[in-house]
C-alpha cells in the first residue's frame, strides 16, 4: 500500500502510464468530457475535491513541460488564473478560447474531473520528461 502521494488507485495507475507529450485535462465538474480519453472522476460534491487540490497533487507527481487554459479564466475565475500563473508563469502557460480548449481536450490521454464548481477551472497539462 502506498503511504504518500496520490492514493487513488485509478489515478495513480493512469499517471504511471503517461509519457512525454501526453495530455492530461484537469477539469471542473461542468466541463464536457470528450469520448476517447481515459477518465478518472474524483468529483464527490460541489467543490470537493477542489481544482487547486487536484492540480497541486498532480504537479507533485508529474513532470509537466507546459499547460493550456481558457482565456476566459482570467476574468471569470481569478483564483484559478492566479493558481495557474503561480505554477506555470507566463512562459509555461498558453491561453486559448474555452471552445478551443474543449477541442484540444479530445486529444488528451487522461481526464481528471474534480468537484470544482467555479467556472473555467480547467487546464490541459502537457507531460514532460524527468531527464
How is this structure best described in words?
- It is a single chain.
- With 131 residues, the protein is of the alpha/beta class.
- It has helices at residues 9-16, 51-61, 73-76, 78-88, 98-105, and strands spanning 23-27, 38-41, 64-70, 93-96, 110-113, 123-127.
- It is globular, with a radius of gyration of 14 Å.
- The model has no long low-confidence stretch (mean pLDDT 97).
Mean pLDDT: 97
Helix coverage percent of residues? 25-40%
Counting DSSP H or I runs of 4 or more residues, the number of helices is 5
Largest sheet: 6 strands, mixed
Shape: globular
Name the structural class.
alpha/beta
Low-pLDDT stretches: none
Strands of the biggest beta sheet: in what spatial order?
2-5-1-6-3-4
**Secondary structure tally: strands:** 6
Distance, first to last CA: 28 Å
Radius of gyration: 14 Å
Order of helices and strands: HEEHEHHEHEE
Q: Report the portion of residues in β strands.
A: 15-25%
